Structures are given as C-alpha cells and as structure tokens.
Amino acid sequence: MSHHRLVSRAGLGLALGLMAAPVSGVSAQEVLERLELHGALNAGYGRADSIGVFGIPQKGTSDYRVFTLQGRFALTPKDHIVAQVFNRRLGASPLAGAIADVTMQWAYWQHKEGDFTVKVGRNPLPRGLLNEVRYIGTVIPFFRPPTELQLEAFDAIDGAVVSYRHELPFGIGFEQHAFAGGSENRTVASTAQGQQLRIARTENMFGGQSYLTLPVANAKLGLYGARYGFIQTTGRGYRSNVMGSAEATVSIFKLQTEHGRITGYGPVNDNRSGYTWLTTRLHDRFAIAGQHAYTIRKLYATNPAANRMYMDTRTAGVAGVFSLTGSTVLKLEHHWREGYAFDTSVPVIRSQTPTSVVMAPASKTRYILASVAASF
Known about the structure:
Structural class: mainly beta
Helix content: under 10%
Largest sheet: 16 strands, antiparallel, barrel
CATH class: Mainly Beta
Strand content: over 45%
Shape: globular
CATH topology: Porin
Low-confidence stretches: 1-12
Distance between the termini: 33 Å
Order of helices and strands: HHEEEEEHEEEEEEEEEEEEEE
Oligomer: single chain
C-alpha cells in the first residue's frame, strides 16, 4: 500500500473521529447540537490549446476537483475543535503525485477570550485575502486564486496562531494575527533534465498578518510578513516573504489586488509576484470577472554581473459567473498564459557565456475551464 494512501486513510479516520467523538456526560442529542458540518465542492473540465498548465492538458481533463469537509465541535462556548479534510484531483499536473487522495488540511483547538483567539494544531495560515477560502469556489470568481502569489503552499501552519480583533474609532476595524510553526511548499521546477517536483518543509516560521477595514467602499487593507527556514533536496537556508493586500467595492464593481516578494538564501532566491481581480456584478445571478497576474524572478548566473530579472509568467483571464442557486455557482473561464512555467519543460535560457545570458523566447498557451461550485 502506498504511503499516500496510508496518509489518506489516517487523515480521514482522524477527521471522522474528531467529528463524531462523544464527550463524557453529554447525550447524543447534545453532541449533535454542538457539532457543525460544512462542505464545499469545486469540480470542472479544462482543456489547453498547446502547452498543458495547472494539470489541464491539450486533450482535456475532467479529473479536476476539490472537495472539502469541515467538522466543528463546541467543547465549551469558548473552546472548539475543528478538523477539515479535502480530496483534490489535479488532472495531468506533475504535482498530482505529491497530493494524497484525502488529506488532513486543518486540525486544531481554538479558544476565544474577548478580543483574542488562540488556535493550536494544524491551523489556517492568516496570509492575504484568499488563503482560507482558496478551495471554496462559491466565494471566489475563479476556480482557484492566482498561483503566482498563492503558490502550492502555505495553506496551513503546524503550530499556533494568536489573533486580536478590535473596533477602532471612526468605524475602522483592526485585526492582528501572529503565528509560529512550520508549513509546506510544493513546486515544479524546469531543469536541464526536465520537470522536477520539489517538496520543501518550512520550519521555525514566524510572522504576522495585519488588516484594517475602512468605513468607505467596504475597503480592506492588509500587510503580511514572515520568515522561515527552508529545507529541500537542493539545499537549505531561509526565506522572507512580504505581501500587501487591498480590496474595495463600489457599486457593482469589486477590486482585489495583492503583491508580494520572496527573498532568501540557500539557495539564493528573489521572486516578485502579484495579481489583480475586477468583478462586475451585472445581475443578482450573473457577474463577469477579469484577472491579471505575474511572477518576476531573478536569474542567478555563474558570473554575478550577468544576474538579471525576467518575467517568468504573465497571465490574463476572464470568467462568467452564474449563480444557479444561493449555494451553487457555474463558472466559464478563458485564460491566456505566457512565460516559462508550465506542466512540461520549456527552455528558459537560449545560450550563455561566462559574461552574458540570452533568454529563450517565452512560451504561450490558452486554456478553458468550466466548473460547478457548491457549498453547504
């Protein structure tokens, strides 16, 4: 039996145990009253016109979905245990082999006292506007948040999160989250030998996320910062990540934008990325969303004088979002992608000498994605 399948069964068993665990002296009826269940399904069909990306190949795939199931049990009015498992299928993505059929995404104890909340265990990582809802298709206009900034990483932190929420004068809301622990990072890198799956573990991670909500245009501003040890087969060192976020809603328009930078050593690294979403609600049941995202990387050559920044990815997309019911959404998306990050290797460097580097032309692809999202 594979390691992934063992992990899958163990995670599912733990989640079901947490959801159904009896409490001494509590009747079955009271257990049901203290238990909340929530779930979400995001399933789709995608097809690329040339180079496969995000697991969507030229021939198309319907093996594409995310299903989450969350159980929340109230131990006391101030204490809860929360567990969330999810099933994820990634089509033809090189990452598919690194993700078990069923995994434990979150499993934590939460205590609330006044304006403070403490979470211990495998917690949602407070990082940006979309991290906690990245798999909930009914609340975001696209199938997924832009991976340029979101990455296949940092959806959870094994450790502790302390949050403080307070209302300031003039209708301003303030949130501060502090966290410490470890997390995971999954990437596919193009090398001279082809595509290489890299799974890294981050430890000794610490940082914070701040938010301000303003009484004008439902505006929200955020600032995130973290530092962590970085361990993978190609080396170890540290990384620093900073990110700024902003969103606002004016009439039928909602704008969301986030931009960040990751730097570090062991090996050296300098990535800058971001995205902008604009959603226009034309009807109670229909909206159009547009997306632009990018990643700029620093290329480190043998001769430091030849180091350079280059556009690794540049993407654009548009989606039609149809609300079928209050909890079911249909999305039709068309995306354009240019750069060097795809599901198959494309050349990044055309030629290099001890004093110069010539970049290969950027590759291009388009893909369509039709999906249905439902939640309860």
